[in-house]
Specification:
The chain has helices at about 20-25, 140, 145-155, 175-185, 190-215, 215-220, 225-235, 245-255, 260-270, 275-290, 295-305, 310-320, 325-330, and strands at about 5-10, 30, 35, 40-50, 55-65, 70, 80-85, 90-95, 100, 110-115, 120, 130-135, 165-170. It is α+β, with helices and mostly antiparallel strands and about 325 residues long. It is built from 13 helices and 13 strands. The protein is about 40% helix and about 25% strand. One of its GO terms (molecular function) is sequence-specific DNA binding.
């Protein structure tokens, strides 16, 4: 890492004591669950909450004023750190010297890292950095699996000698809706603690469901096949303004059969490629409606490749619970 970028080394824990090191190095103040950063480094704050004896949640919502490498040091405390990153721009998450480009518009914005492995974050200066982290004790995760399931599917994941990050990918669509809603709330709101706690429990439930139904089957697939599917995501995310390209094209890009591609895609992302594409389009639609750059719903619909405004309005309401013209009026 460049010597021109200062580095702050810290640790995480399931209890709030770790925050004092941030204040000692970066300045700022701690007020109950909230931590306010010094504007020398960033404009924003953080919120830490213990939602269960074995589970805590951290929200970081800030705009970085100058470059800084935040390096989380490995420690013996036996828990996972589950990352959800909805930053407005790309950030770098560095694990075992491997750079992962992450953020709301990145194909990689979800990760599970063992606390016994160090990692670093480098956010984009001048852009909103927004991240939620669940800290979950590994013994708590084990309670959701039978002995047979654990031995067959997760033995290596909990092997302290291996200490490996075992998954890095994309936030599932259901969790993204929860996070997108949470992102609209201000940390200083009087009821923020209750909102965050509800969101954290929902995300935890989705995570356990994902681990139970999707993660074990990841072991059966070759790394190159998983990487091929991840790379095919670039085609989807780069072409949200046109109709869905079809399974055959995506499978060809990944150099596998349509059946194999569809199965592996669903294993990684929890939904079909078509549904994922549709959900991403609708999330982009919400951004466009809120941008103030469009006067009519029809303009947004056509921008996203929908020929019929009525159809676009219908699926938007099904997804978000409100009609798009309601959102447009607010902005």
């Amino acid at each position: 890492m460049s010597e021109l970028i200062p580095e702050f080394k810290h640790i995480y824990s399931l209890t709030p004591e770790w925050r004092q090191d941030f204040i000692n190095y970066l300045g700022g103040t701690i007020v109950d669950e909230k931590m306010y950063f010094s504007e020398k480094w960033s404009r924003g704050s953080s919120f830490f909450l213990e939602i269960l004896p074995d589970v805590s949640v951290i929200i970081i919502d800030t705009i970085v004023n100058r470059p800084i490498l935040l390096t989380r040091m490995a420690s013996d405390d036996d828990f996972w750190i589950v990352y959800y990153d909805l930053s407005d721009s790309f950030s770098k998450h560095i694990v075992e010297d491997v750079n992962h480009k992450i953020g709301y518009k990145s194909k990689l914005n979800f990760g599970i890292v063992d606390n016994k492995i160090g990692s670093s974050y480098l956010a984009t200066v001048g852009e909103r950095f927004y991240s939620l982290r669940l800290l979950i004790r590994k013994s708590y995760i084990k309670t959701f699996f039978t002995d047979a399931e654990f031995e067959k599917d997760f033995k290596d994941v909990f092997d302290d000698k291996k200490k490996k990050m075992f998954f890095y990918g994309h936030i599932d669509s259901r969790s993204k809706v929860i996070l997108h809603s949470l992102k609209q709330n201000k940390i200083d709101d009087p009821n923020y603690e209750f909102i965050l706690k509800g969101a954290a429990f929902t995300l935890l439930g989705y995570l356990i469901e994902r681990l139970n139904s999707k993660m074990p089957s990841m072991v059966a697939h070759l790394e190159k096949d998983i990487e091929a599917v991840m790379l095919s995501q670039q085609h989807l995310l780069s072409n949200l303004l046109v109709p869905f390209p079809g399974i055959e094209l995506l499978a060809n890009n990944a150099n596998m059969s349509s059946t194999k591609y569809r199965t592996l895609y669903n294993t990684i992302f929890g939904v079909s490629p078509a549904l994922y594409f549709k959900n991403e389009k609708l999330l982009l639609a919400k951004e466009l409606l809120e941008s103030g750059d469009f006067k009519f719903v029809s303009d947004v619909a056509y921008e996203l490749g929908y020929n019929k405004t009525a159809y676009f309005s219908s699926i938007y309401k099904d997804y978000f619970g409100v009609l798009p013209n309601t959102v447009l009026k607010e902005f």
